[in-house]
Amino acid sequence: MDLSGVDLSSVPRHVAAVMDGNGRWATRQGLKRTDGHAAGEHALWDTVYGALDLGVEWLTVYAFSTENWKRSTEEVRFLMNFNQQLLIDRSQELNEQGVRIRFAGRRNWRVPKRLIRRQDESIELTKDNRKLTLTMAFNYGGRAEIIDAMKAMVADGVAPGDITEKRLRQYFYDPEMPDVDLMIRTSGEFRISNFLLWEIAYSELVFVDTLWPDFRRENLRDAIIEFQQRERRFGGVDEA
Ligand code: IPE
Ligand code: IPE
Ligand code: MG
């Protein structure tokens, strides 16, 4: 990959991606929606390798939302098996690449136990890696995350006066996850669809028309170049 247009000293630390457009990609080719999900696998690994090349430290991908249960039984079942197989096929390789695998989402609600077991194995296998943290947002909803955090906080007996942004974060699915710097959504949709609501408060948003199965590391690079042209102010005033 040609990195000449990228300022490697200011690569976003945390990139999040809404991997959208698999169904449309498949329909356009006369295939089943599930074939589109299968085709998205290559895009995912290419993006992971791109993130490694670019020096992105955190990559979070939206794999299954709390709203995706509305889909047909066939599609939901496919996605459960597919996400399990990904881990079986790739955890070892990712481990060798220095990738730490993590998950964000509701674990104790509807997700098959065998998939949770695979997830735990991947977490355990890769836990000492630091090059890139790949978080699969699975059975994830931004609202669910905030509600689950609040429930846990109340259960812990945290007093109202002790509730701060920092404290709430400690109850999120991954308390170590930093704010998102760059959020990418593929497939020409201009919405967030309940992804990382809290964490994107000051993210730069990049929307691309590419359907997820066609997304490659070069698309990640180009989104980062666009990010680097933005001026982030965080509510302040640019001094320059
Ligand atoms: C994203 O692709 C993958 C998941 C939501 C699991 P879609 O399946 O939403 O594809 P479109 O948006 O219908 O094309
Ligand atoms: C968001 O895409 C969820 C994932 C990519 C996993 P959706 O396709 O589910 O979102 P909507 O329905 O277009 O908002
Ligand atoms: Mg979609």
Report what the structure shows.
By secondary structure, the chain is α/β, with parallel strands linked by helices. It has one domain: Decaprenyl diphosphate synthase-like (Undecaprenyl pyrophosphate synthetase), CATH 3.40.1180.10. 41% of the residues lie in helices and 15% in strands. The protein has seven helices and six strands, in the order E-H-H-E-H-E-H-E-H-H-E-E-H. The protein has helices at residues 22-28, 33-54, 73-96, 113-126, 142-155, 165-169, 217-229; strands at 14-18, 58-65, 99-104, 132-140, 182-185, 204-207. The protein has a six-stranded parallel beta sheet, sandwiched between helices. Strand 3, helix 4 (113-126) and strand 4 form a beta-alpha-beta unit. Helix 2 (33-54) packs across helix 7. The model has no long low-confidence stretch (mean pLDDT 98). It binds 3-methylbut-3-enyl trihydrogen diphosphate (2 copies) and magnesium ion. The site of one 3-methylbut-3-enyl trihydrogen diphosphate (IPE) has 10 residues, from helix 1.
Which strand order spans the largest sheet, edge to edge or round the barrel? Answer: 3-4-2-1-5-6
Give the C-level CATH assignment. Alpha Beta
**N- and C-termini, Cα separation:** 33 Å
Give the beta-strand count: 6
The CATH architecture comes to 3-Layer(aba) Sandwich
Spell out the helices and strands N to C.
EHHEHEHEHHEEH
Radius of gyration: 18 Å
Cofactors, ions and other ligands in the entry: 3-methylbut-3-enyl trihydrogen diphosphate, magnesium ion
The secondary-structure class comes to alpha/beta
- Our estimate of the beta-strand percent is 15-25%
Sheet with the most strands? 6 strands, parallel
